[in-house]
Structure of TonB-dependent transporter Oar-like beta-barrel domain-containing protein:
Amino acid sequence: MQAKLERHYTNGLSFLSSYTWSHNLDDSREPLPSNGDGSFYWSYNVLGARPDYGNSPFDTAQRFVFTGTYALPFGEGRKYVSKKGMANILVGGWDSIILFRTQTGNGITVNPNTSTVNGAGAHAIRIGNPFAGGGAAPDNNPIVCPTKVRNRANWYNPCAFENPPQASVITAPVTGAANFLKYLGDAREQLHGPGYQRIDMTFTKNFKTYESQYLQFRGDIFNLFNTPTWGAPSNGGISAQGGQITGTNFLGNFTPDARFFQLALKYYF
């Protein structure tokens, strides 16, 4: 679902904003980038794909984008410095664009910190609110509970999860999917990681050359305020360091997280 609002104002000022709500679910691996799906239960023939149905690792529930464009009132054909000359060449014809984007985080899988049945992959079992600090650690996971969450030390509260039963408790063959699942824990992608916020800015200036042709200078500033975008927790377990974030979000090859500039010249004809 997407909603869009656009408004044009006088004197060269306009705004465009959009809001998107979505929810992605699947039951198998996919070719898109992910933060780690963990193990998949369909590898056990007795279960099939149904227990794997849940949040996709690229699930982004909400996204908001705001764009503001302002044609500075200087230069030929504008309110000030409207005559040709050196002043027009230096300060005239500039346009500015600001882009603000924010979105919720992607799904992440929380894993246990104990061995599982015959080396099988398993997920931690959610028993409380992972985004509330404090609490008491479960008996099968005696750790210190962090008082604060949603930070780099503990994005989530590892005390909100417990380990699935260990293999040592099995004394007879296990049959049936319902009996089998409790040894493998919850479904993958039990919660979402940090979101994404970014402000970019662009400046452009056109130089008329011949008839309708012109040369455009463009300057882009990515991550204007040089604020980091934290990645998914590097420790996705339920130890005392569960939810620890040690790096920034990967935004693509040749796209650093830190502020950077890009300059370009284009000729339009």
User: Anything to note?
Assistant: Residues 2-268 form one domain. DSSP finds two helices and 13 strands in the chain. The CA atoms of residues 120 and 203 lie 55 Å apart. The longest strand covers residues 196-208.
